[in-house]
Amino acid sequence: MADIGESDLGILLRDMRPMLHAEPYTFCVVADTASLPQDLPIFSLIREAEGTTVIAAEAEATRAHLSGEGQWARITLIIHSALSAVGLTAAVSAALAAVGISANIIAGYYHDHIFVPWDKRHLALTALQQLAASQNR
């Protein structure tokens, strides 16, 4: 059985260890995934009625001739959060909103990934590090 992850909000915030990825990502929309190159390293696919969102490193999306929406930095919270954990997304979103940064949050089974505007990535990372540090007081 897989490890279900941490659900205590205080521990999640204290130990989240936000990690900024080096490359910019982009959000693209495709009508169907059959047209995507088989070798495209996709971070995430989200299927909606209007189309499928592809999240990939911007350089890879450009190589695949996909047109994306902006440049986004990906920050991964290294702690393994439980899917049923309550409050992590709200606390992260509030910390970023307090410094004027939008957040697009995607949860995988093991980690939460926050996409923030590329030009605000360092400010976002600092805000999350400060949120984590505030739990140690």
Question: Overview of this structure, please?
Answer:
This protein is an alpha+beta fold and 137 residues long. It has a single domain, classed as 2-Layer Sandwich (VC0802-like), CATH 3.30.2130.10. It contains four helices and seven strands. Strands 1, 2, 3, 4, 5, 6 and 7 form a seven-stranded antiparallel β-sheet that branches. Helix 3 crosses helix 4. The longest helix has 14 residues. The radius of gyration is 16 Å and the shape is globular. The termini are far apart.
Characteristic key phrases:
137 residues, alpha+beta, VC0802-like, 7-stranded antiparallel beta sheet, 7 strands, 26% helix
Compact description:
The chain is an alpha+beta fold and 137 residues long. Helices cover 26% and strands 31% of the residues.
